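job 3f2a | input accepted
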Amino acid sequence: MAKQKIPESELLSQGYIPNRRLFAYAAGIAGQNFHYQFINGWLFYFINNILKIDAKIVGYITGASRLWDAANDPIVGVLIDRHTFKKTGEKLRPFLIYTPPIIGILAPLMFSNRGFSETGTIIYIIACYLLWDLAYSVQDTALWGMLAVSSPHSEERSRAAQWTAIGVTAGCTLPGLFPAVKDICVNNFGMDAEKVFLIGAIVFGFGGELLSMAAGKMKELVKNENNERESFFEAIFVLRHNKTMLLISLARILEYIKLTVPWAYFFESSVSYKIGGTSIGGGTAQLAYGAVTGAPGTLCMFAATKIVDKVGGMKRILIIAQVSSIVLRIISFFVGYKSIWSMLAVMLIMGLQGIPANMMNIAHRSLMSDSIDYVEYSTGKRTEGVTFSMQNFATKIGDSLALLINGQLLSLVKYDEKKAMTAQGALFNKWQWPMFILGPITGAFLYLIVIMFVKDDREEQKMIEAALTERRNRLKNEAKKELSEIG
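job 3f2a | predicted structure (487 res):
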């Protein structure tokens, strides 16, 4: 006898997420990552190598811009927490519909050469970036905040976090094709590099944001029944009760302190192989590296929650990911990259590291969602907006540090943006492999020091969930009683 399908309305009433809504949410996250990976992965390169702005200046400008932007994120989070859409009573979901078109349009604007002077170009890029960042902060905070209100059950939120990580991975995969596409378009078809980047910004930037609107099909199943509205500063200072979120944010920032530069510099300057009569360029090798190292982690994410149970919790996944990164990167350094076989061996080695690494964001978001329950249990306030704005804050602070480091490192190794990658000096070429494979180890060490202090107690979490369910039901019944008495 076939198993009877449970109606979607009944699943929602019990606090469970119907699969079709979960898949739509994951697809929306994939779309957002099409957009973000292209912007984050190529804007520095575009300004430096296509618009010909000095790497050190680009590092200062982009790094300082993101530091400024990061300061805005907690403000955006508080404003979201203090706002409710009157028509629907929702706090987050409508932002997933309204902001993507604005964000999408700004992507090709940033990747277009307007013919300004160097100073004018810098001002233009900063202006576009600041507008982009404000709209993106609103979307990103609402998008990830939805994870915390997707269900009152921790296990169900972990399932949602698993699928969001799958969405992130899928979203990172397609932009990973861009280096190979760029090589083919420029080298084989003679296309202008500026035009290739503009097309990429339209496809990945604008198209990705349109796809991200699918996340609007998710429902907010957890609402704070306490209608008291705290002041702006009270909403900010409530973060002091969320030790888990503060520690994870600090660990993620420190992870960006790595002595490396974007992948493209290593692959385009140092990697070239021949198989028979076929040449494999840096862009194609970069695509292959990303595909091979990412595949094991991607496949294992479909069993992520089971793996987490086996290793003993989300915190242990974070520790395993960083320890394995340190060990396997050192091994890879000695294997080298000079031959195609040594590079293939490195890909396979780093593919093993990708298994726990790809689960890190599942662990981060699951732990942060649980921490929101703890804050509600302690203070009576739910803080999806300001808590997940800190995720954006940590990313931007980390990105700004990385960009500043990128600019300084490229300057130290005498990188000349006026020359082709393959025409750089001996000092630049000498340091590409060490920076690429060993550079991230510094961030891994710093991350580990902080993450050891994070608490991950499953029994305590179950107790908090039960207490919150009882409290919400009581407050809801009291509100109904007051309404009936008024009526």
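job 3f2a | The two ends are 49 Å apart (CA to CA).
job 3f2a | closed
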